[in-house]
Amino acid sequence: MKAARKFFETVRPNFLPGGKYEKLYPVYDAFETFAFVPGHTAHSGAHIRDAIDLKRTMVTVIIAMIPCLLFGMYNVGLQHFLALGQADAPFLDMFLFGALKVMPMVIVSYAVGLGVEFAFAIVKKHSINEGYLVSGMLIPLIMPVDIPLWMVAVSTIFAVVIGKEVFGGTGMNILNPALTARAFAFFAYPSWMSGDKVWVNTSGGATVDGYSGSTILGNLAVTGRSGSEYADWSMAEMIIGTIPGSIGETSKIAVAIGAFILLWTGIASWRIMLMSAVGALSMGLIFNGLAGAGTSPEIQAYLSIPFWQHLIIGSWAFATVFMATDPVSGAQTNMGKMWYGFFIGFFGIMIRVFNPAYPEGMMLAILLMNVFAPLIDHYVVEANVRRRLKRVQPITAKA
Amino acid sequence: MSQEVRIKRGLNLRLKGKAEKQIHNIASSSVYALQPSDFPGLTPKMLVAEGDEVLAGQPVFCDKLDPRKLFCAPVSGEISSIDRGDKRIIEAVRILPDAEVRYAPVTALPASGREETIQWLLSSGAWPFIRTRPYAVIANPDETPKAIFVSCFQTAPLGAEPEFALNGQEALFAAGVEVLKRLSPGPVHLNIDGSAAAPRFISDVKGAQVNRFFGPHPASNVGVQIHHIDPINKGECVWYVQPQDVVLIGRLALDKRYDTERVVAVCGIGVLKPQYVKMRLGAQLAPALHGNLAAGKQRVVSGDILTGRKASAEGFLGNYHAQITVIPEGEEPEFFGWLLPDPKKFSLSRTLFSWLNPKAEYALDTNMHGEERAFVVTGEYEKVFPFDIYPVPLLKAILAEDIERMERLGVYEVAEEDFALCEVVCTSKIPLQETVRRGLDLLRKEMM
Q1: ipTM associated with this complex
Q2: Under 8 Å CB-to-CB from B348, ≥6 apart: which residues?
Q3: pLDDT tens digits for A136-188?
Q4: Do A47 and B347 lie within an 8 Å CB cutoff?
Q5: What is the distance, to the nearest Å, from the Cα of residue B279 to the centroid of all Cα atoms in its chain?
Q6: Is A126 helix (H, G, I), strand (E, B) or coil?
Q7: Residues 365-384 of A with CB under 8 A from B
Q8: What pTM did the predictor assign?
């Protein structure tokens, strides 16, 4: 610790004005403040401050994502060996196989994303914001395992530049950066982001008979089979997460652990999560009620899926817990968060069922509501303004 | 008549270093100072020169924009220097006190009449103690407030307790309230802690409305009380006075002297023995801290830890302060301080571990625990901001200097002290009190 302190003291002059690398000061500053919380003291206002800062907040979110990451690694290996008919492969082999697939994506996402952030910080001469620590972990978790690394890199650059930096960086962005990356990849490289080829890595052997490789929602969009027979997977498998899907979203248990951490620490809004569930369940119930009106047996079957199962199939859970609750791109008032969450669940399930081009609707629903969040907040705040203006009248009437 | 108000949103910070309820004798200060910066928005105009002799209660400077507002010497003595800062702004007017305080004569309180009483308060130097919401500045004598508020308890961390500080001053306090009653056609509100017995010092008061408040800090902030009892709309104003200043007004009326002596809490973990002392306004802090400062670099604050002014032992007691707080400066960089759990750290959020021990008392220093960032986390101010006002939209309106929007969002009801807890819990370490004060100053300038 003392050595680290000494190291920073020695190299610091190079980065100060007049030093050799003065332009790189934001980079130096990012590393120093990463290792040491600076000894800044309160200079105006309150003389004591809460021990929380953005780094602590972001690292807590990352901790909440670790179960999803670890399970995702295992599941990538599991699906691989299942597809090759080697279901008896040792656990460690599966995990290591997955880790070797997933870690490069994590590294690429962080390296590229932070590289862009550093570049902007240097040009705009501001300190580096912690927001990307979370986005950088989210991006690989919502990608299919077989997407080429360069696509991850390009999507990340797009997300950080267009999704965030053009608006002024973390705190100013309108769209969720991680979902911007996914949406970019989805529309730029659709064959790598959907279908039945990308969710399971099948390299190094022939697949077994009956292997499909598609996700449950992909299946449903095509066949619309209902009940627990609608896919090759049981309800238990969907909850545990041993199914094909984006890397981090398959296990509802891992997501639940993350949700618990986020809710207990108070970082994520329970209002958004709760109302997203309410929204999804409402849409599911509406579909159940309308099932008879479907134009084809497939659609009728899809509509009649028990409404609560929508919370377990697909990425509703992951998207609600980790993406919808982004405080920057979401609604900011407590009442606004309720509506924002409700519509995410509502539209997410609607898009999922009605639009076969988008087997999963959560991404588009959240991006859509990101755009509408300021409008929701506007009406919530205006209602407050009107309520306060009304207060004037009785008082003036009395006088 | 009297109301009960329950405040739900807020935070009682449990800090170590609460003053022991006993008054210790200290040496009297060897120098006093009047500091114009105690009064936001004031441009002083000197009425005396260096070397002049003044009596306690004699005007030293007045408000350049309203010369009726006089600011008086707390003690008799010689004007030893007028300290000026950048652009020749007056920072402090220093007075070397006489051994025995001689008081300027005070005219008798007029028998009745609002105008006469205001005139009497102005000429006697007590006017600056009467402040107004909106803006939280000295009241404008030409306005008529719809009510007058006195917050008779203290929920701020380590706060000096009026119940103890005003012990035995029941008659003076009641006389002060009698004067205040003449100023407004509306009631005088005495707001007390609902969970405790009514403080003794209000026992002699007649004809005031006593309201009981329950709940955590900032329940004792007068802004919160006004918001819940008689909220301010555009064009209205409410005046407020601190309890020890009600006593000062009472003493002016009864004893006919301008005597600013009060009981002051000396507290915080930076002092060895937290205690109460008697001081006059403007006194140097050194005698109160003499031999009582802990080792290491300490921050001396005139006022409470949330809203007080950074001073030093050579600094002076601020005009509205009843407390001197001393805590260590937290200048040590902390190795992975954002990552490692530390039970000594306090956080309202559960991302650290202070929730494990909700009853713990904390020994906090002045470290910021992070750097300033843009607004990211939402919903955290609301937890400690007991107003029907959206704090973040209001702050953004202030930052954008959009006056119309500030008005619509409720800027008239708040002052910087109401945002103090928001500032403490802010993840992004945004300087909120400074921002709100800037907004209020801007608004006031536009309205004048």
Answers
A1: 0.90
A2: A50, A52, B11, B380, B383, B384, B425
A3: 999 999 999 999 999 999 999 999 999 999 998 888 899 999 999 999 999 99
A4: no
A5: 16
A6: coil
A7: 377, 380-381, 384
A8: 0.91
